[in-house]
Amino acid sequence: MSQDYYKILGVDKNASKDDIKKAFRKLAHQHHPDKNGGDDKKFKEVNEAYTVLSDDQKRAQYDQFGSAGPSTGFNGGGGFGGFDFSGFSQGFNGADMEFDLGDIFGGIFGGGRKSSRSKEKRGSDIQVDIEISFEDSIFGTEKEFTVHRTDTCTHCKGERKEPGTDFVTCNTCNGQGQVIENRRSMFGTFQSARMCDTCDGTGKIPKEKCRECKGKGTQNKKDTIRAVIPAGIESGEMLRVTGKGEAVAGGRNGDLFIKIYVRKDTRQARSAYSTSDVSYIGNVRKEGNNLVGELHIKITDTLLGAEKELETLDGKITIKIPRGITHGEILKVKEKGVPFGPGSENPEKSRSSSVRRGDLLLVIKIDIPDKLSKNAQRLVDELKGEGV
Questions:
Q1: β strands within 271-388, DSSP E
Q2: Rounded to whole angstroms, how far apart are CA atoms 357 and 383?
Q3: What's the CA gap between 12 and 20, in Å, rounded?
């Protein structure tokens, strides 16, 4: 008996694909057999109607011949109410769909499909924390440290068998490398494949296990890592060393992640009244490719100008303090900032003149004394009398 698929879905013959899709979702949710009050017969009818009307070619045949028309294959096709499950991996019969039954009912009823494809095994990642000085974060450095990790067995080279011996067929999977399992669902019984745990998907097991790793293919070891820390690295950044994580038999190694912690620059600006002739830059910080710090000067330095010998990350340099400089003004010392560009990733070259660098920006801080000697008070009074 011919069925009216448009009537089953509650749409007219001119309904768009979107209208058909919306109607199907609503009715499938309403009549699903796993839901209280669901109707298995109605659910099958909805599936069959949607299978036909969602496919342009089948819909055209249905409009011309009806559900019992020639070569439509709508009825008696086997399976679930005429629904063709062969197209599940590509959607509905290869049609251009945005969803399939596994997507819809998995979200509604907590089910959903699982891929039967075996994924490549991969070892776990490892993370280590390294603390470096502020100077090393600017110019880069090299750090050597030790990690305890699982690595490929050096005796059997990860093959799990004693060198010189052979493999035999795995009894668990009969050499197939995967195990077939039957799974039941509301649509019937399905088969899925998973990688064989006994042979790790190889289909073979050692006739004689490696005496060092006992057939595991891996062993614990202490590994010395030498890591290059690039110039300009920030505190909290991560470096990745590929393949230096945990090893796993029959798969690839994980990675080693190095988290960098930068110690704050502990140098403090010395008092303007220090007997030292060398001035220190205080509160140094990195801003992009520039270094920014505070330079404390005396009142007389701003009135008369001065030359200052500064202790920087590059050693001692001499700068001129111009007369009349104001509090908060910034002096720029070119090419004394953070290295960047080609060569900056090499700690040995990052200080060379061939590598571009940012600037050193000095924020002027004029120190005002809390107390004045009698002589200083007299001199200030004289300056005041001069209108200064």
A1: 278-280, 282-287, 290-297, 306-312, 315-321, 330-333, 339-340, 356-357, 360-366
A2: 43
A3: 9
Length of the chain in residues, anyone? 388
- C-beta of residue 75 within 8 angstroms of C-beta of residue 66: no
Band (pLDDT 50/70/90 cuts) for residue 116 is very low
Work out the angle between the directed axes of helices 40-53 and 17-31 (0-180°, nearest 10): 170
Cα angle 182, 172, 210 (rounded to 5 degrees) comes to 145
Question: What pLDDT shows up at residue 259?
Answer: 95
| Residue 233, token pair as written in the block | 């690295």
CA geometry: angle at 116 spanning 26 and 171, to 5°? 150
| 229-247: pLDDT as tens digits | 999 999 999 999 999 999 9
Q: Could you count the other beta carbons within 10 Å of the beta carbon of residue 308?
A: 17
Q: Tokens for 361, please give them.
A: 């920006």
Residues 6+ apart with CB under 8 A from 306: 297, 298, 300, 320, 321
Specify the amino acid at residue 100.
D
Contacts 24+ apart (CB under 8 A), 183-191: 185/111, 186/33, 186/34, 186/111, 187/80, 187/85, 188/80, 191/116
Q: How far apart are CA 28 and CA 22, in angstroms?
A: 10
The span from the CA of 108 to the CA of 102, in Å, is 10
| Rg of the chain, C-alpha, whole Å | 38
| pLDDT of 342 over the 70 cut | yes
d(CA 361, CA 117): 58
Instruction: Give the integer Cα–Cα distance in Å for 310 and 277.
Output: 9
CA–CA distances in Å: residue 318 to residues 23, 283, 357, 387: 81, 19, 19, 32
Q: Which single residue is written with the structure tokens 């289909």?
A: 203
User: Could you give the CA distance from residue 257 to residue 237 in angstroms, rounded to a whole number?
Assistant: 10
| Rounded alpha-carbon distances, angstroms, from residue 331 to 82, 269, 299, 325, 365 | 82, 16, 17, 9, 11
